[in-house]
Write a structure and sequence with these properties.
single chain, 424 residues, alpha/beta, 8-stranded mixed sheet
């Protein structure tokens, strides 16, 4: 890059933006973090964090203490602008959720007054294919002085560099994977790709894989859609095996002995901010030719409803046998084992259903959370002792050595090899 990179502006101080900002600040860059939530800004400026991620608190405190990380509600002039804002769905209750890139467009417009020639703009938000090109057009409308064309019929070309680099990190390991994982960078042109790769090479230890914007955008969606399809296969197998009284975990273990087979574990559905979301970004734009991807989403969503019905039927059988309503323990609320992240969690969907269930008393267990605004949490041992029906929704490590006897157990996540008397 013609100018040395010293100042970085990170827009969005959430699960990706804040760790990125803290990492860059600890690498010696002057980082200006931006968030529209004043509480988030004040929290970061005090050296604290508003989200939970292993090691992030110390990382942010160190970055703020050094003076290299400061937060505000507005951007400022920088050498690099990183957009890491949410891309949720529109609330239109459609069968196929449609991505909402309003936050991306808003963030793009907010930096327009601060742009200069040779700036580097990087979109890290997970986005539908073509979003990077869209924000380029937004900037062309906002800052026509930063574009040029040799003649009137030629497409406007930016005087700055713009790329897409999707995040590829695992909650609970973000601070490790943000450094060690390979990264994909796709620029609007070759120069943008090269400049972006040079920048990421200053703090990423993994390989920097270079491509174009559309391919980079599609790569992240493809990775998570692939995993979603594989999980859907496992979840569908679990339903079929239940019908035929086959142990699905034993079946999968045997099938995986084939050198070219690797079936994933079934569960109560699919959650998290990526796998449960990203496939819809493909389907919404390509409904006519993404039938397998859409069906996988539908299967994984259906598995959650299937689990609810399985629990209800077990409750009814208990009532019929003992002429009383059972106490149910729902074990785990996170979207995956050994984290406290509840985003898009199918276990939470199940817990919400039974929160208003009149037939039984329900105990909620999530050992990775101290407190929940929505559920009254109880300790693991308390729930095991008090419950008549124990339902394992998430395979947290705290559940794996529990000794259980004389209880009815529904196990949807392979905790069952550690105890007996399992119904499922």
């Amino acid at each position: 890059m013609e100018n040395k990179i010293e100042r970085i502006c990170v827009l969005g101080l959430g699960y990706i933006g804040l760790p990125t900002a803290a990492l860059l600040a600890n690498k010696g860059y002057s980082v200006h973090g931006v968030d529209v939530d004043k509480h988030v800004v004040n929290t970061v400026n005090s050296g604290k964090i508003h989200i939970v991620e292993v090691g992030l608190g110390t990382f942010v405190y160190s970055a703020v203490l050094s003076g290299n990380l400061k937060a505000d509600i507005k951007p400022k002039e920088s050498d690099v602008f990183i957009i890491a804002v949410p891309t949720p769905f529109h609330n239109d209750n459609s069968k196929v959720p449609t991505p909402n890139i309003d936050f991306v467009i808003s963030a793009t417009k907010s930096i327009a007054p601060y742009l200069k020639k040779n700036n580097l703009i990087i979109l890290e938000s997970t986005s539908p294919v073509g979003t990077t090109e869209k924000i380029t057009k937004v900037l062309a409308a906002e800052r026509p002085d930063l574009f040029f064309a040799n003649n009137a019929n030629e497409e406007l070309k930016p005087k700055f560099y713009i790329s897409h680099c999707p995040e590829r990190v695992l909650p609970g390991k973000i601070l490790v994977e943000i450094i060690e994982n390979d990264r994909i960078v796709g620029g609007l042109n070759k120069e943008s790709t090269q400049k972006t790769a040079e920048f990421y090479n200053t703090f990423v230890e993994g390989k920097i894989l270079q491509t174009d914007t559309k391919t980079a955008e599609m790569a992240k969606l493809t990775e998570n859609s692939f995993r979603d399809v594989n999980i859907a296969f496992a979840n569908e197998l679990s339903i079929i095996c239940d019908r035929h009284n086959i142990n699905v975990q034993e079946l999968i273990k045997l099938a995986n002995h084939h050198p070219r087979v690797n079936i994933l574990r079934p569960g109560v559905g699919v959650g998290g901010h990526c796998i449960a979301v990203d496939p819809w970004f493909i389907v919404s734009e390509n409904p006519d030719c993404s039938k397998l991807i859409q069906k996988a989403r539908e299967i994984n969503n259906y598995k959650t409803e299937w689990c609810i019905e399985k629990i209800k039927n077990t409750v009814l059988e208990y009532e019929k046998k003992y002429n009383t309503s059972p106490t149910i323990a729902l074990m785990g609320l996170a979207f995956k084992p050994d984290i406290n992240d509840l985003r898009e969690s199918p276990a939470v969907r199940i817990a919400r259903y039974f929160k208003s269930y009149k037939n039984s008393k329900v105990l909620y267990v999530e050992p990775n959370l101290v407190f929940s605004d929505e559920f009254e949490l109880v300790p693991t041992n308390f729930a095991i002792n008090k419950a008549d029906i124990i339902v394992f929704l998430v395979a947290h490590k705290e559940f794996k050595n529990i000794s259980i006897s004389n209880k009815q157990i529904l196990d949807f996540c392979e905790v069952k090899k550690f105890h007996t008397n399992v119904l499922f």
